[in-house]
Amino acid sequence: MAGIFDIELHDGDSINQDESDDDIIENREDEYSHTTNVNTALESDNLERVQLSEQNVNEGREKTGPQDFELCKILGEGGYGKVFQVKKVTGKDKGSIFAMKVLRKASIIRNQKDTAHTKAERNILEAVKHPFIVNLMYAFQTGGKLYLILEYLCGGELFTYLDREGIFLEDTACFYLSEIILALQHLHNQGIIYRDLKPENILLDGEGHVKLTDFGLCKEHIEEGAVTHTFCGTIEYMAPEILTRSGHGKAVDWWSLGALMFDMLTGMPPFTGDDRRKTIEKILRGKLSLPLYLTSDAKDLIRKLLKRQVLQRLGSGPEDAEQIMNHNFFKHINWQDVISRKLEPPFKPSLKSADDTSQFDEQFTATVPVDSPVESTLSESANMIFQGFTYVAPSVLEEMCAQPRVVNARSPHKGLLNTGFSGSLRSLSSRSPDAHLRTASHFHQHRHHVVGSNNMEDTEMADIDPLFDF
Which has more confidence, 459 or 349? Predict the structure, then answer.
């Protein structure tokens, strides 16, 4: 609402002298008393006093809460709360399937950074609208919990497909990378660094197109050339400048893109060790080993994205994503077709219906969905931290005001669009670095294709001394 009143007046602004007389209100001195006392007027018995509340401000706008959603399945669970598949049981979108991310305020408010990350995630989800970024539909809160209602992405995590296939062909990787690049470009244009790019945070919609999720580690309001120093992300995909805490900017996302590309084409991130220290040491000092079966274009792009010296890294300049999009690896890509979602996805999720949960872990989906009661309610002053959390997507408001209309689906799968889950189990875990750490044994356990060292070529990379003790 604040934006409505941000009207800037400038001295000397021109006034149209040809305005209609209907727009002019005459001010006659004999009809207005300059001695009117405001306090006297407020004390008059003729005034009606109304207490402002959610019930009488913006009356007519849809009020949404937990009671408007039926719990269907559990999709994930973590230290801060749960993610449910839910069905809307009221309103114009009654019957629609969503993902409901439920966060306990008491768990979040214990740590100032966790509180900031949660608020940033909600703000970014409201501000960012893009074909390859998850849509926020509603946000609301109760005394003890925060609720984010997002589109249900029924295709599941890209990690699942990579785990199943072992490695991707270059054409397959090119498809996913092109959509991810456009999503990251849009975030960067909005002054946002993503900082947690990995297969688990990339979900697929019903048609198989990419959607970035989990914006809890994003950094807002980053201008060109500015840096931040927060140590966050998933170790195997972290850029060296995050690990050394030397200050980082948007280029960290392009390092992560290079690590993701390597992961897609080889079955493993480029630098992994038996423990956290060894993994970090390899990221900072190790050689980049590229399989001989990769094409020269793929090798060249990976090398240029995984440059430890930020200024040498592809995408680090003012052109940002354009540098990467112009690389020869994407020579067959029509970027207008990518943003228009005209490219055929390499994997089509096998789904029986729009509420299909087969792409998610049965460990959760087979559990009875229960939104656990809150053990304690925050004080009024503590709750003020989450003031302004409530949100209704413009598309929902437009639908409420629009006349009933018939939409003709363009394909048999049209009904599955925009119904995907927008957060994984990992998106609910603690925001500490250790919570996102996956060791080499994790990859060996989940990936079935490991390229031997006798089939690799080594690329020497410059060392960077860490600025802190591991």
Answer: 349
Closest CA to 262 of 164, 163, 170, 133: 170
Q: Report the pLDDT averaged over residues 258-280.
A: 95
Q: Report the residue count for the chain.
A: 470
Instruction: Determine the Cα angle at 197 with ends 254 and 251, to 5°.
Output: 25
Distance CA 346, CA 171 (A): 9
* HSE-CB of 186 using CA atoms within 13 angstroms: 18
* 315 labeled part of a ligand binding site: no
Helix axes 251-266, 296-305, angle to 10 degrees: 140
Helix (H, G, I), strand (E, B) or coil at 392: strand
Maximum CA pair distance of the chain? 97
Place of tokens 């629009």: 402
User: Do the Cβ atoms of 134 and 150 come closer than 8 Å?
Assistant: yes
Mapping DSSP to helix (H, G, I), strand (E, B) and coil, where does residue 347 land?
Answer: coil
196 close to 234: Cβ distance less than 8 angstroms: yes
Closest CA to 173 of 263, 238, 251: 263
The answer to whether residues 216 and 156 touch, using CB atoms and an 8 Å cutoff, is: no
The CATH superfamily of 66-154+354-428 is Phosphorylase Kinase; domain 1 (3.30.200.20)
Residue 101 annotated in ligand binding: yes
Residue bearing the bigger pLDDT, 275 or 384: 275
Domain segments of the chain as ranges: 66-154+354-428, 158-349+446-459
Per-residue 3-state assignment (H helix, E strand, C coil) for 147-198: EEEEECCCCEEHHHHHHHHCCCCHHHHHHHHHHHHHHHHHHHHCCCECCCCC
- Three-state DSSP state, 270: coil
Chain centre distance of CA 29: 58
Which residue is associated with the tokens 């994503």?
Answer: 321
Is 70 labeled as ligand-binding? no
Q: How far apart are CA 451 and CA 447, in angstroms?
A: 11
Structure tokens at 301: 């792009």
DSSP of 38-77, one letter per residue?
HHHHHT-TTPPP----TTTSSTTSPP--GGGEEEEEEEEE
Average pLDDT in the chain: 76
Q: Rounded distance, CA 15 to CA 26, Å?
A: 16
For 98-141, what is each residue's pLDDT tens digit?
A: 999 998 888 888 878 788 888 888 889 988 999 999 999 999 98
User: Per the annotation, does 319 bind a ligand?
Assistant: no
CATH of domain 158-349+446-459: 1.10.510.10
DSSP state of 372: P
* Residues that are catalytic: 196
On the question of pLDDT at 386 being above 90, the answer is: no
Segment (H or E) for 146: strand 145-151
81 is in an annotated binding site: yes
The enclosing H or E element of 281 equals helix 276-285
